[in-house]
Amino acid sequence: MKGLIEAYDARSYNEFYMATMSCEDRDDIYDEYGPQWKETAEHSINNYIAGVLSKQLAMRFEEILMTNYHNRQCQHPANTLDGEHWLDLLMSTNKINKQKFLTDLTLVMNK
Known about the structure:
With 111 residues, the chain is mostly helical. Helix content is 68%, strand content 0%. The protein has 7 helices and no strands. The radius of gyration is 20 Å and the shape is elongated. It starts with a helix and ends with a helix.
């Protein structure tokens, strides 16, 4: 199971279960672990996440950026209200001019 979790980079039970596993993979897991396979999967996923985190904590930030650790997809891409509120609060608390920030960000991205 550990190999499948790593192969699918599953960070939650739902991600693992909904992964593009074949019916044969699911049957094999059930045959090997029985009805407790969900509990085993959750335990294995937690260990996988802890391993990824400890590896990242041992790396410099630049090294993390060069690897593909941040390839997660937003679970609810249409609902951005919480993120917008957080970003507005961050900008206003730190007295950051949004227009200047976006201009600077565009310059960096175009390099």
